[in-house]
Specification:
- By secondary structure, the chain is an alpha+beta fold.
- The chain has a domain of 75 residues: SH3 type barrels (Roll).
- 31% of the residues lie in helices and 33% in strands.
- The chain has two helices and six strands.
- The strands form two sheets. The chain has a three-stranded antiparallel sheet, with no helix packed on it. Strands 3-4-5 form a three-stranded antiparallel sheet.
């Protein structure tokens, strides 16, 4: 009886450890430095790209194509990006942290 109980405890502990190993935190990207470097490279090269956000940034949009006829990447910080778009006779800036970026899609030449 004690042997069956011990096997049950070992089995339960193995399941618990396997469960903990399976649930690792996920991130949308590697490090902020890598994302910043990618954005700077795409922007400097004039490469069109699309950014997908977890939460909407402007006008309820979660997909943002840059550059387009009205929007431009305005600033790339250590852990955020900003884009601008016309608004009346001025420009409106929108900024969001890198943690809101789910993915970036672009085509390499």
């Amino acid at each position: 009886m004690a042997k069956k109980w011990m096997i049950g405890v070992v089995f339960a502990a193995a399941l618990a450890l396997a469960g903990l190993a399976a649930f690792r935190p996920a991130t949308a990207q590697g490090s902020p430095a890598n994302l910043r470097a990618l954005l700077e490279r795409l922007n400097a090269g004039g490469t069109a790209f699309t950014v997908q956000f977890a939460a909407p940034v402007a006008a309820g949009e979660t997909l943002l194509a840059l550059p387009d006829e009205s929007r431009r990447l305005a600033d790339i910080g250590e852990d955020y990006l900003c884009f601008s778009q016309p608004w009346n006779d001025t420009l409106r800036m929108y900024c969001t942290p890198f943690s809101n970026v789910v993915g970036i899609t672009y085509t390499t030449p």
